[in-house]
From TrEMBL:
<dbReference type="Pfam" id="PF08666">
    <property type="entry name" value="SAF"/>
</dbReference>
<dbReference type="InterPro" id="IPR013974">
    <property type="entry name" value="SAF"/>
</dbReference>
<dbReference type="InterPro" id="IPR013785">
    <property type="entry name" value="Aldolase_TIM"/>
</dbReference>
<keyword id="KW-0808">Transferase</keyword>
<dbReference type="InterPro" id="IPR057736">
    <property type="entry name" value="SAF_PseI/NeuA/NeuB"/>
</dbReference>
<dbReference type="Pfam" id="PF03102">
    <property type="entry name" value="NeuB"/>
</dbReference>
<dbReference type="InterPro" id="IPR051690">
    <property type="entry name" value="PseI-like"/>
</dbReference>
<dbReference type="InterPro" id="IPR036732">
    <property type="entry name" value="AFP_Neu5c_C_sf"/>
</dbReference>
<protein>
    <submittedName>
        <fullName>N-acetylneuraminate synthase</fullName>
        <ecNumber>2.5.1.56</ecNumber>
    </submittedName>
</protein>
<feature type="domain" description="AFP-like">
    <location>
        <begin position="281"/>
        <end position="337"/>
    </location>
</feature>
<dbReference type="InterPro" id="IPR013132">
    <property type="entry name" value="PseI/NeuA/B-like_N"/>
</dbReference>
<dbReference type="GO" id="GO:0050462">
    <property type="term" value="F:N-acetylneuraminate synthase activity"/>
</dbReference>
<dbReference type="GO" id="GO:0047444">
    <property type="term" value="F:N-acylneuraminate-9-phosphate synthase activity"/>
</dbReference>
<dbReference type="InterPro" id="IPR006190">
    <property type="entry name" value="SAF_AFP_Neu5Ac"/>
</dbReference>
<dbReference type="GO" id="GO:0016051">
    <property type="term" value="P:carbohydrate biosynthetic process"/>
</dbReference>
<dbReference type="InterPro" id="IPR020007">
    <property type="entry name" value="NeuB/NeuA"/>
</dbReference>
Length: 337
C-alpha cells in the first residue's frame, strides 16, 4: 500500500476561495493524495480573550486577538461545497479537520469518509466520542500528547464505534516550525509498538527530509503544510512548503516507496549483469603444465566472474592440472587424480 500524502492547506487560503482553489491546483499537480483544509465556527472554537501562540504573534498582527485572526479564516458551508466539487474535478481527495461539534456534523453531512482529529482535540472527549460514533476512517494527530493520552483517545474512539483498523495515529509536534531537536521521530515507532496500530507523521519542520525519514521508518500517512508563498500574511505560511517543495517531497516519498522494495535479499535484475564483471574466478597465476599440482604459487583470483567461484578455493588447491594453462586462463573443475 502506498503512502497516503496529505497536502495540508489548512488556513493558508487566508479566507479567499480563489486562493483555496489555487491551493487545490498545487496539491493535485504535486501528486498528493488529498488536500486538507480546516473547518470551524470561530465562536465555538475560541473565546474572545484567548491569546495567540507565539509563532502566530510573529506571523500575524500582534494587536488582533486569536478570535479576530481565526474569524477571518473561517469557511462557510457553501465554500466547502464549492471546494469539494473543485477537488473532485482535480482528482484529489478533499479533507478537512473539524474543530468543534457543529463542524463535525457539517463534514459528515457533506459526505466525508475520513475525519482528521487535530492534536489540540486529543483530550476533547465530546469531539472524540462524536467522531468515533460515525465509524469513519480516522486520522489522529498526537502533538503535545503523552502515551497515556493517546491511549485514552483511542479507547474513546473505539468504544464509540470506530474499528481500530480504521484508525491511523500520527506522531506530531505542534511547534511551527518544529526544531529538529524536538522531532523525536522514534516516538512514532513507540506509538505503534504500544498500541499495535497504523502510524504516520504530521510534519511542521522546515524542509522535507524528516518526511522522507518517516516514510523509511514505515509511516503510512504523511501530512505537510503547504502554501502558495511563504511570505504571505497569515499564521502558517512561514512554516509551510512552497509549490516546488511540495512537488519535491511527493517525488521523494514515491522514490523511497519504490526503494524500500521487499524484505528478500537477492541480486536485482539491474545488477545481475554486474556479477560476471565485478566478481572474480580462479585463474592461472602463471603458465601451468598438465599434471602440475595447483597451489597458491600457480593460481590466483581475477575478474571476470564466469569461472570457478573463489569460495571453492580450498577445493581446487591440491588438485592436479588436467590440461595446460596459460597465465590468466580460467581454471576448470579438477579431479584429485
Amino acid at each position: 500500500m502506498s503512502v497516503f500524502i496529505i497536502a495540508e492547506a489548512g488556513v493558508n487560503h487566508n479566507g479567499s476561495v480563489e486562493l483555496a482553489r489555487k491551493l487545490i491546483d498545487v496539491a493535485s499537480s504535486a501528486g498528493a493524495d488529498a488536500v486538507k483544509f480546516q473547518t470551524f465556527k470561530t465562536e465555538n472554537l475560541v473565546s474572545k480573550s484567548a491569546q495567540k501562540a507565539q509563532y502566530q504573534k510573529e506571523t500575524t498582527d500582534r494587536n488582533e486577538s486569536q478570535f479576530e485572526m481565526i474569524k477571518k479564516l473561517e469557511l462557510d458551508l457553501e465554500t466547502h461545497k464549492e471546494l469539494i466539487s473543485y477537488a473532485k474535478e482535480k482528482s484529489i481527495i478533499f479533507l478537512s479537520t473539524p474543530f468543534d461539534l457543529d463542524s463535525v456534523d457539517m463534514l459528515h453531512n457533506l459526505g466525508l469518509d475520513t475525519f482528521k482529529i487535530p492534536s489540540g482535540e486529543i483530550t476533547n472527549l465530546p469531539i472524540l466520542r462524536k467522531i468515533g460514533s460515525l465509524n469513519k476512517n480516522v486520522i489522529l494527530s498526537t502533538g503535545m500528547s503523552e502515551m497515556r493520552e493517546i491511549g485514552d483517545a483511542l479507547q474513546v474512539l473505539i468504544k464509540a464505534g470506530t474499528n481500530k483498523e480504521n484508525i491511523t495515529v500520527l506522531h506530531a509536534n505542534t511547534q511551527y516550525p518544529t526544531p529538529m531537536s524536538d522531532v523525536n521521530l522514534n516516538a512514532m515507532l513507540s506509538i505503534t509498538g504500544e498500541f499495535d496500530i497504523a502510524y504516520g507523521y504530521s510534519d511542521h519542520t522546515l524542509g522535507i527530509e524528516v518526511d522522507i525519514a518517516a516514510v523509511a521508518l514505515g509511516a503510512t500517512i504523511i501530512e505537510k503544510h503547504f502554501t502558495l508563498d511563504k511570505t504571505m500574511q497569515g499564521p502558517d505560511h512561514k512554516a509551510s512548503l512552497e509549490p516546488q517543495e511540495l512537488h519535491a517531497m511527493v517525488n521523494a516519498i514515491r522514490n523511497i516507496e519504490v526503494a524500500l522494495g521487499s524484505f528478500e535479499k537477492k541480486p536485482t535484475p539491474s545488477e545481475t549483469p554486474n556479477i560476471e564483471i565485478a566478481r572474480k574466478s580462479i585463474v592461472a597465476k602463471c603458465d601451468i603444465k598438465k599434471g602440475d599440482v595447483l597451489s597458491e604459487k600457480n593460481i590466483t583470483t581475477k575478474r571476470p566472474g564466469n569461472g570457478i567461484n573463489p569460495m571453492k578455493w580450498d577445493c581446487i588447491v591440491g588438485t592436479i592440472a588436467s590440461k595446460y594453462y596459460i597465465q590468466d586462463e580460467l581454471i576448470l573443475e579438477q579431479s584429485n587424480e
